[in-house]
C-alpha cells in the first residue's frame, strides 16, 4: 500500500477542524457524540483522512463505551498499533496504516473470537453501505 504523506497545510484543507484534531493531533471525540457509534448498517468503515478500508460492519459490536467498537480490522495491513503513554496510562493507539491518522485505541477486553476491542472515533471514520447484489 502506498503511504499518503501530506503537509500540515494540506491536511488542514482536507479535513474538518474536528477531524484534524482527532486524526492529526490524536484527539478524542466525546463519548456517545459520534454519528457512527449507533450505526448498525451493513458496510465498510474507512479512514476519513485517506479512504483506506479499515473495518467491516460484521466485526462491529456495541461495547457500551460510547465509541464505535470492532473485534478486528478488515485485514492485517489496515491499521498499525503504537504504544501510547499519554494521560498517565499505558494504552495501545491504533492508526491508519496508509496515512498514519489517529483512529483510537485497542483494548484486550473485547468479545470472542479475538478478545480485542478496537475503540475508534466516529469522526476518524467514513461509512460506505454495502451495495446489495
From TrEMBL:
<feature type="binding site">
    <location>
        <position position="50"/>
    </location>
    <ligand>
        <name>Zn(2+)</name>
    </ligand>
</feature>
<dbReference type="GO" id="GO:0006979">
    <property type="term" value="P:response to oxidative stress"/>
</dbReference>
<feature type="binding site">
    <location>
        <position position="99"/>
    </location>
    <ligand>
        <name>Zn(2+)</name>
    </ligand>
</feature>
<feature type="domain" description="MsrB">
    <location>
        <begin position="8"/>
        <end position="130"/>
    </location>
</feature>
<dbReference type="InterPro" id="IPR028427">
    <property type="entry name" value="Met_Sox_Rdtase_MsrB"/>
</dbReference>
<comment type="similarity">
    <text>Belongs to the MsrB Met sulfoxide reductase family.</text>
</comment>
<dbReference type="InterPro" id="IPR011057">
    <property type="entry name" value="Mss4-like_sf"/>
</dbReference>
<protein>
    <recommendedName>
        <fullName>Peptide methionine sulfoxide reductase MsrB</fullName>
        <ecNumber>1.8.4.12</ecNumber>
    </recommendedName>
</protein>
<dbReference type="GO" id="GO:0008270">
    <property type="term" value="F:zinc ion binding"/>
</dbReference>
<feature type="binding site">
    <location>
        <position position="96"/>
    </location>
    <ligand>
        <name>Zn(2+)</name>
    </ligand>
</feature>
<dbReference type="Pfam" id="PF01641">
    <property type="entry name" value="SelR"/>
</dbReference>
<feature type="active site" description="Nucleophile">
    <location>
        <position position="119"/>
    </location>
</feature>
<dbReference type="GO" id="GO:0030091">
    <property type="term" value="P:protein repair"/>
</dbReference>
<keyword id="KW-0560">Oxidoreductase</keyword>
<keyword id="KW-0862">Zinc</keyword>
<keyword id="KW-0479">Metal-binding</keyword>
<dbReference type="GO" id="GO:0033743">
    <property type="term" value="F:peptide-methionine (R)-S-oxide reductase activity"/>
</dbReference>
<dbReference type="InterPro" id="IPR002579">
    <property type="entry name" value="Met_Sox_Rdtase_MsrB_dom"/>
</dbReference>
<dbReference type="GO" id="GO:0005737">
    <property type="term" value="C:cytoplasm"/>
</dbReference>
<feature type="binding site">
    <location>
        <position position="47"/>
    </location>
    <ligand>
        <name>Zn(2+)</name>
    </ligand>
</feature>
Amino acid at each position: 500500500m502506498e503511504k499518503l504523506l501530506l503537509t500540515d497545510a494540506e491536511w488542514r484543507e482536507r479535513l474538518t477542524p474536528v477531524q484534524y484534531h482527532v486524526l492529526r493531533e490524536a484527539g478524542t471525540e466525546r463519548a456517545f457524540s459520534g454519528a457512527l457509534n449507533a450505526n448498525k448498517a451493513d458496510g465498510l468503515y474507512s479512514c476519513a483522512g485517506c479512504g483506506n478500508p479499515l473495518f467491516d460492519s460484521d466485526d462491529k459490536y456495541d461495547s457500551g463505551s460510547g465509541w464505535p467498537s470492532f473485534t478486528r480490522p478488515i485485514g492485517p495491513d489496515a491499521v498499525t498499533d503504537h504504544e501510547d503513554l499519554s494521560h498517565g496510562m499505558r494504552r495501545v493507539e491504533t492508526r491508519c496504516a496508509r496515512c498514519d491518522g489517529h483512529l483510537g485505541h485497542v483494548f484486550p477486553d473485547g468479545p470472542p473470537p479475538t478478545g480485542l476491542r478496537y475503540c475508534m472515533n466516529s469522526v476518524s471514520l467514513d461509512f460506505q453501505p454495502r451495495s446489495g447484489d
